[in-house]
Each structure stands twice: as structure tokens, then as C-alpha cells.
Amino acid sequence: MIDRQEPSSFHEMIERYNRQIQEAKRRPPISESPPCPNPEPQGSSCPPPPCPPQKPQPLPDRESVASPSRRPAHHSAPSLPEKPCDKVSCDDKTDFSQTAGIRGPVLLQDSILHETLATFVNHKPLERVLHVKGYGAFGYFQPYQSMSKYTKACFLQDPAQRTPTFTRFSLMIGSQDTPDSCRNVRGFSTKFYTKDGIFDLLCNQIPVFFLRDAMRFPEAIAALSPSPVNNLPDPSLFWDFIARTPQAMHMLTWLYSDVGTSCSFQTMGGHGVNTFVWCNAEGKRWYVKYHWIPLAGERYIDRHEAQQTAGQNPYIAGQSLYHSLARGQVIEYELRVQLMDPADENNVPFDPLDDTKIWSETQYPLLPVGLLTLEHNPDDYRSQVEQSAFSPANLIEGIELSNDAMLQGRSFIYWDAQRRRLGPGFRDLSINCTPGWSPARSFVTSGEGMPVSGVETRACPRDSDPFTQAGERYRSLDALNQEHLVDNIASELYAMPKHIQKPVLDSIQKCDQAFAQHLVRQMEIYC
Ligand code: HEM
């Protein structure tokens, strides 16, 4: 029997279409059609009338159908012999537009046709402005022990409690066709469906960012994007940005190391980048930085392997994630945090709220918190992965924003982006909600009860040393990884004009003299 219910979505429409094609193929020839097994009183669901007879018939007089008095004679259709029906399921009325007579015209009133086409042209949700290409996985999080000393966050109190999660891995720059292995910032966002509501933890594989203030973020993204003139890759946009942005030096030493190229999310780390605040039941606050450690170990690939992989399989990381979960393997990441008493913030040689800096692991050890276990694939990419809406402002009691300027700049813009791409009801989509909860009703705000003071200003915050940690990063690499970092930079920087090369080399010299010398030698090889 043909399903005559209207499709509620494009997806259903396609499924129904495929079902009908399959059924039609199985159905015996029309002359041998069995009687309708479930005849309905009006007969509307029974097999519709058979194909028009194969013997050519004169076409109905279209003039008599379409207001003959107003149509000139030369508009009449030529009297063609009717062709035999060549459709497998020509008895399926839903395959045809509604026409005035068999050869048309198609009637404007055919709302079913318009709905079918309008559903098709509108079925694709708008893409994210960033992190367009992504893959998802469901799982759960379980703490190792109660973290009540540091936070009252409900899902971190009881080691026996499992909190359901959804994780989306993504590439920050590029389109749906960008190869998974290319040099990129990779996103690692997790939604925790807690009993107090949604908590989102957005991480990148690189622990620092290009900028410490959100104001220049659009400029950074433009520098990483294709040329606005011809849509072709233009490395001079990036290197010009780096030449003008010494604070990006530290990020450069991560992005242009092998950490920038990878063929697997299972062996990739994640870092919250920004500094958040944990608050316990007594109101004691801690600065907190988040880190995910893959239990499979961290592994990255070099630029040559990344390029080769990009050509061979642009979906390598997504496929590996999907097939591992489909085979029943679980993928695990340990959540660790670094905690700093805000009273100590003046005792570190940098601003702990500056996201171009990392915290020393000796001074602020990585404290294990719990285990994220990814265990199954999404069943519907569009409604689960595409329509997932993460925000650093999706917080629950016990977790707050700090005064990290970049984080505060991010706090509104994700919801705004989601209103644009998913509509104002984005929080009601099942992937984005826990029943009965909405941030507007939860009244979780940052720093309730914290004193705030200061003179209005637009100024560079305390400590703007952009070089020390970048130099430390270079020196922390072994010889092979130093070689890769330097070669990755040299392979692009050598081709830049002098007015870009010079300030970049000056900045690198301020990071580390040997780093700069190594780079100059390597650039000479390319020249
Ligand atoms: C001012 C700076 C930033 C702005 C304006 C910004 C803006 C955005 C926007 C608009 C999206 C897409 C949201 C959506 O449509 O759902 C996005 C996604 C994302 N952002 Fe940012 N971002 C900033 C900085 C950062 C930083 C520092 C991180 C580091 C953790 C980060 C991590 C992510 C991740 C992981 C995603 C992907 C989320 C997903 O999978 O849906 N962003 N960002």
C-alpha cells in the first residue's frame, strides 16, 4: 500500500520515496495486481487507477480546459500521440504534479508540488560560520572522585554517577570538503546533559589562541580564510596577520608544529584554552583550565604525511571515528584540570586570564577529574551533529566565566550564531536540551556575589610579553619536532615579501635566538 501521508521533513520524504520505489519494484505487473489487502472505505489508499492504456489516445482538448476564450489558437498543444508509461511506479500519484489535463499546464494550486520543492530547497540547515566540518559521538562522563572541594557542579559530585554526553569534533577553518588531515585548529566540544541543565565544554587541540581579546577575532579568521578576491588559498594573508600580531607567536609555535596536522580525533588532545571559574558550596572560587587526554595516546603527523593523506582520504579522521564506534570500540579521554587560587594570580609572571599563555604543569599540576567514554555514533547527522549548538555560556551552578577577555567576548556570540543558523527555537532541539531546562530560567550567572570595580577603558591588560612562552615552547621540543616546526614555517615564509618576513623574523628572534637562526637557514634552502 502506498503511504499517502505528507512527509514532515525532507529526510522522511526521501525515505518514503525510496520505500515506494522498492515496493513498486516488488509489485507484480499492473494487470496482475492483487486486490488491495486493506481496502479503506473511500478507497483512497487502494492502488490507484492503472497506467493509461498503451494504445495511443487522442490528447484531451487543452483549449477546452484552460479558458478557451482568452487563449489564442497558436497556443494549443500539438496533438502528440500519448507515450506508453515508462515509470516503474506510474500508478503512484505522488510522482506527478497536478495538471490541467494530462499534458499540463501544472496548476499553481498544487501545494503538494510546491511543498515538496520548498522542503527540498530549505532542508539544508545553514552552516556554522566556523568549525563547519565536524563529526559527532555520544557517550557518558563519570568522575573519578567527588570534586566538591572545588566545585558544586552537580555532575562532579558522585563517582558513581554517569552523565550522558554528546561530543563534536571539528575543523575550525574550511568547508565540508576540507581534508581532515590538513593544518588546522581542531575543535573538541562536549555537551554534558546534567540534571541541572546543559554544560558545554568547548576545547581545541591547541592550548592557546592567537589573541587575548575578542575584538580582533574576525581579523584572525579572515587571515586564515581563502582570499576574498579569488577564493584561493593565500598564505600572505596569514603571514601578514602574524607580522602585525606578536601576541600570536605562542599559537604559531603550536599550529605550525605537528600538533597542527592530524589524521585521528582518537589520538588528539583537547584544551579549554580560556580560564573558567569553579565555585564550591561555600562560595570559594578557583580559576580552572580544562584538558582532555586521549587514553590511546597523543599522536600527530608531519606536513608531508598530512598532504598525502589529504589526497588519499579527506575524511580519514571522521571515518576512523565512525568505524571504530560502529565496530563497538569505545574511545576514552581523561578530563584533567589545572586549578589556581585567584589569590595567587599576582604570583605568576603572566596574566592567568590571558589565553595566549599556558600554566606551568609543575606549578599547577594536572588534576585527574574523570573519564569521557564515547560509545556510539549518531543516527541522524543533521538533527544531531549539524544542529548541535555549543556555547561557552552554557553553564551550570558551580561553573562560571572568569574575566578572561576572550572568553567574555565569546559568551554572547555563540547563541547569536545559533539563532541565525537554527532559528530562535534552537534550544528546543532535542540535541540541545535537557527536559524542562533553559538558560533563561536557570539564572546561572557568572560571579554572583563577586565585587566588581574599575574605570572604563580600552587598553592592553597587564603583562603583554608575547615571546617568553613561545621561546619555551620551541626549546621544549625535541630536535625532530624543532626541525618540523621550523621547516613548516620556512616552507611558507620564504615566499613572503620582505615587509612581512622581517617583522615575523624579528618576533621569532625575541622568542629564541636559536629558533630564528634555524629558521633563516631553513628559508635559504627554499630560496
Ligand atoms: C572571540 C573569539 C571567538 C569567537 C567570536 C568564536 C565564535 C564561534 C562561533 C560563531 C562558532 C560557531 C557556533 C555555532 O554556529 O554553533 C564557534 C564554534 C566553535 N568555537 Fe569559537 N569563537 C571564538 C574563540 C574560540 C576559542 C578561543 C575557542 C577555544 C576553545 C573556540 C572553540 C570553538 C569550538 C570548539 C567551536 C565548534 C563548536 C561545535 O562543534 O559546534 N572558539 N566559535
TrEMBL record:
Residues 31-59 have a biased composition (Pro residues). Its cofactor is heme. Residues 12-26, 83-92 have a biased composition (Basic and acidic residues). GO terms for cellular component: cytoplasm. Heme binds at residue 414. Residues 92-468 form the Catalase core domain. Keywords: Heme, Hydrogen peroxide, Iron, Metal-binding, Oxidoreductase, Peroxidase. Its EC number is 1.11.1.6. It is an enzyme of class 1 (oxidoreductase). One of its GO terms (molecular function) is heme binding. GO terms for biological process: hydrogen peroxide catabolic process; response to hydrogen peroxide. Residues 1-92 are annotated as: Disordered. Pfam families: Catalase, Catalase-rel. It comes from the Bacteria. The active site is at 131, 204. Belongs to the catalase family. This is catalase.
